[in-house]
Amino acid sequence: MGNYESCKRCGRIFEDNYRLGVCDECVEKFGKDKEFRAKLSITRNYVKDMELKGELLSVGAVAEGTDICEEEIWMFIRLGEISTASFDDPKVREYKLRESRQRDKVFSGDKDRIAEEIKRVTGGFHFKREKE
Length: 132
Description:
Elements: E1 4-6, E2 13-15, H1 24-32, H2 34-53, H3 59-66, H4 70-79, H5 90-120, E3 121-123, E4 126-127
Helix pairs in contact: 2-3
């Protein structure tokens, strides 16, 4: 059973499996939005420059350095659009840990199903039918 939430942009109810907080339609709109792309480019460049300098970042520092609000920085992080490797922000670490645990939970549920599929397949295009 999925996690249903209200989209933070349009208010539509949707299944939020990736914990983005934004529905698929709004994510598509963001990808086509020139302002969104410009802010994303500025943020990526700022993060990359700070990584090269060896500075540790927080969401607040990136927002202050780029003049982009923290909510949009979080949106970029949730969408996986910017690297979080150089973030020393406890909230970012907590988010990445939760995301990792959620991904592990989803994949562990598929593990049994995949094992069953492997049992049935012998190779090529032929299936081995188990005797009942």
